Amino acid sequence: ATNRTFTMIKPDAVENGHIGGILNMITEAGFKIIALKLTQLTVADAKAFYEVHAARPFYGELVEFMSRGPIVAAILEKENAIADFRTLIGATNPADAAEGTIRKKYATSMGENAVHGSDSDENAGIESAFHFAGREQF
Ligand code: CMP
Question: For the Nucleoside diphosphate kinase-like domain, which residue ranges apply (predicted)?
Fold first, then answer.
């Protein structure tokens, strides 16, 4: 079925000038952009967004990284969007990411891995609502 996923181009990829390259890979792969903006997470926003990882040893580092500069937030639509987008971005650790994936091309490390992709329909809805008002979703 056609469904939606939520993505962020993370601060590392924005700093390194990869917004255009990543959006191009996304649209070339057949995803339709439903919502899109350049924004920045506050420390409180990043803590809330990654609440599920609060007990992990890398949580502090993750919150600091995700709030250090602008990100691009987007909602994407496609047949099988959640799974197909996770395939397109590749493994969390760029050392394990397959050829042709966004992380293989643009990620620098396990923590600074260029892009986010929702892991379920439920989380895509929650994450989309976190970043976008209804009138910003087309
Ligand atoms: P993502 O899967 O999008 O969401 C959770 C993030 O936590 C992950 O991307 C990485 O940015 C980060 N992360 C996961 N594992 C580690 C780790 N071992 N060390 C540092 N950051 C991590």
Answer: 2-136
